[in-house]
Amino acid sequence: MIDINNLHLQYLTNQQGEQTAVVLPIQEFTELMEDLEDLIAVATRKNEITTSHKDFLTELANDGLI
Can you give the residue ranges of every domain in the chain? Predict the structure, then answer.
């Protein structure tokens, strides 16, 4: 996960000196988008029923996957 305090941001300003946009390296942008996608996935699955690790291993064994 990217540390927001370590982003290499550059700000674009209008004629009044007000910040109107941000420019950042594409790699940092890509990492931010991946983090956002992960957070969305977690948020959408927060109400799903969970399975204990032991039960999960048993299920994998029963399916012949381990």
Answer: 4-62
